[in-house]
Design brief:
This protein has about 200 residues and is of the alpha/beta class. It has 2 domains: about 5-110, Resolvase, N-terminal catalytic domain (Rossmann fold); about 145-190. Helix content is about 50%, strand content about 10%. α3 crosses α4 and α5 crosses α6 (about 160-170). The longest helix has about 35 residues, at about 100-135. The N and C termini lie far apart (about 65 Å).
Amino acid sequence: MAMIGYARVSTQDQNLSLQLDALQAAGCKPIYEDRASGAKANRPGLAAAIAYVRDEDVLVVWKLDRLGRSLTHLIDTVTALEARGVGLRSLTEAIDTTTPGGRLIFHVFGALGQFERDLIRERTRAGIAAAASRGRKGGRKPSMNDEKLRRARALLELGLTVREAATRLKVGKTGLYAALAPAVAKCGEANISTPGPGRPH
């Protein structure tokens, strides 16, 4: 059984000395490091540590919050390690998933994580239902509004193409076409956007 260490800086503490000393004293070798905030998803040190560990190895951290960006991420990481026969040990919290007590704690964490996800889904559905009852729909706000549509028509009357008008207004060409569709159906696109000689759409 090998003890592999992992250390990561925190927003408050950018010095790894305390973590490295504790991991070395625990017998960890090698020790992988990340010197970026936990909010960043790209953590090459953690990825390398997870790739290195093998069945019956133990990944050791100074504190649990050094490993996971959130409770959900922590549980997902521990579950993935457990599926490969790899344990997790936290020195500060004295948690060791290679022991029955440590496994029990993470089963409780897993239940709490699922409970948190269920609450988020429930609140999201309730928010959507409440908005719908007030006549509001979810999703992103449309990039086109009446003012932009008025300006687009003015640009088209000056001879600009739909592509050029969309660029001027900083909106998507597809969105502008969709907004102009009712007028196109009535008048024909040739009357709405007639490009100059040799100017491509």
